[in-house]
Amino acid sequence: MSLQHFISEALSPWTKIDGPDSDIVLSSRIRLARNLEEYKFPLLTSTEEAYAVFKHIEDALTQDDFEPVGPLEVLPIEEMRTNEKRVLVEKHLISPHLASHSKHGAVLLDKEESVSIMVNEEDHIRIQCLLPGFQLEKGLKKASDIDDWIEGLLTYAFDEKKGYLTSCPTNVGTGLRASVMMHLPALAMTQQLNRILPAINQLGLVVRGIYGEGSEALGNLFQISNQITLGKSEGDIVEDLRGVVLQLIQQERSARNALLDQSRLQLEDRVHRSFGILAYSRLIESKEATQRLSDVRLGIDLGLIKGLSATILNELMILTQPGFLQQYAGEVLTPDQRDERRATLIRERVQLEKETNE
């Protein structure tokens, strides 16, 4: 495998599999932050020390495959072009921080792209497991197994009272960040999110945009994760998040049913107008494209639009981002050129899907 293998397709193999409640919970993610005992944390390390950390981790994790995951491809960040890094960020395989601020950063990926081990990010090691739909417990089991394998090869920075030591105090303890990506268009349309999101924050959880901290919630996509890692076990953290997500799923389903019962014609008009714009536009900005895709995805999930699969919407959400547009074009594009290519790509992909399903 090579870098091109991971950036040539918008959809990672794991995203093509349906998961539980995948009409609302698009994906589940478990991330574990770890540091090595014998090295300074990345924020304090020199370039030479960062390289030593990278080589130490690379040598340890590539000497033998972890059988449940298979071989890992090592991709050094400094060997990537700017747009190649952007594509990996758009696919959620690396963080924006790793792409822009790391010293001798790297990522180790499995062939399914469901396991991503980031090196020299904010911490020496960040283990990330991605699964389709609502599968937090399964993700935690997978991440914990990988963590145990790595801990058998390397010595972590650990304190008996504080737990795993990390660069940011908010990660000290378990080092666990559990999150789900949720599509909540009906709650947004009925203006219930203004009441619900602040309540979620008061429960020790945090709501972010599609690319995590500091990002905007585009296309009614929200990343919901734990904020506390100290004083709770991994299982408790996941269970607390699971309980809130179950309530959100129920509320979103109720809001969708209410829209169908009370405002069906208006809802049909909205989703079909959005489909028409996607199918015939010659120019479309990224923000509008994600909103229209959200409307159409809702229409598909509610059976209001036929002949399109939800997968194509997932694919277009990524394909129409700036990095992928320029990857396909093979050149740097101006904003106007991106708007034109985005519209063309959506038109052609929607038409292909319609013809395939007729």
Automatic annotation (TrEMBL):
Pfam families: ATP-gua_Ptrans (PF00217). It catalyses: L-arginyl-[protein] + ATP = N(omega)-phospho-L-arginyl-[protein] + ADP + H(+). GO terms for cellular component: extracellular space. ATP binds at residues 27-31, 92, 126, 177-181, 208-213. Its EC number is 2.7.14.1. Gene3D superfamilies: Glutamine synthetase/guanido kinase, catalytic domain. GO terms for molecular function: ATP binding; creatine kinase activity; protein arginine kinase activity. Residues 24-255 form the Phosphagen kinase C-terminal domain. Belongs to the ATP:guanido phosphotransferase family. This is Protein-arginine kinase.
